[in-house]
Design brief:
seven-stranded mixed beta sheet; 2 domains; single chain; elongated; 12% helix; 3 helices; two-stranded antiparallel ribbon; 43% strand; STM4215-like; mainly beta
């Protein structure tokens, strides 16, 4: 992301810096244009989609869409002009061709530019803040295996029956009352049949 932002804002790479570094580099002189940027918020959509795939032993895939918000702060005498340039360059599709295929990041919104000069060493330093948001689809795979068989206990008012293996109803158990069903064990022997 740093390489793409550097190209969009038109500054040398060493003057486009991540925010909140453990050991921050020396701040450039007041007459030098430079930028700090970083992620300020990650918002995931509620209720991700979860799908089971039965190939092989089976697995689940959780798919969540999230919004990642960046804050770009540009310092220097041309801070506002560079913020305007970055804002417009974020909308050029070609600028995302090296990012979207590998990260899935796509532009969502670009907020208004805020001009907020800073008072440092008894003088104001030009500063412009630009917040923009990206969307991303996040897929996570979990080893949730296929259910091959299971012991089943059936309880009724009259009796309890233990069934040895997976039962495959002719009509799903979610069927409405009155539906006909039959239960077979692994060898195909009829274990039970009746009406729900």
């Amino acid at each position: 992301m740093q390489v793409a932002i550097t190209a969009m804002v038109g500054l040398p790479g060493d003057l486009v810096r991540p925010r909140w570094q453990p050991s921050p580099p020396v701040q450039p002189a007041v007459d030098v244009n430079w930028m700090a940027f970083g992620v300020t918020r990650v918002e995931g959509d509620d209720y991700p989609a979860i799908r089971h795939y039965g190939e092989g032993e089976g697995h689940d895939v959780l798919t969540r869409h999230q919004t990642i918000t960046f804050l770009a702060t540009i310092y220097g005498p041309n801070s506002n002009d560079l913020a305007l340039l970055l804002r417009d360059n974020l909308y050029i599709p070609q600028n995302w061709e090296g990012i979207t295929p590998t990260t899935g990041l796509k532009l969502r919104t670009v907020e208004a530019i805020s001009q907020v000069p800073e008072w440092i060493n008894n003088q104001y330093i030009g500063r412009a803040d630009l917040e923009f948001s990206l969307r991303q689809q996040l897929d996570r795979t979990y080893p949730i295996f296929n259910l091959l068989d299971a012991a089943v206990d059936q309880h009724t008012e009259q009796c309890t029956t233990s069934l040895p293996s997976v039962l495959e109803p002719a009509v799903p158990f979610a069927a409405e009352d009155g539906a006909q069903f039959s239960l077979e064990d692994d060898s195909g022997v009829l274990v039970q049949e009746g009406t729900r």
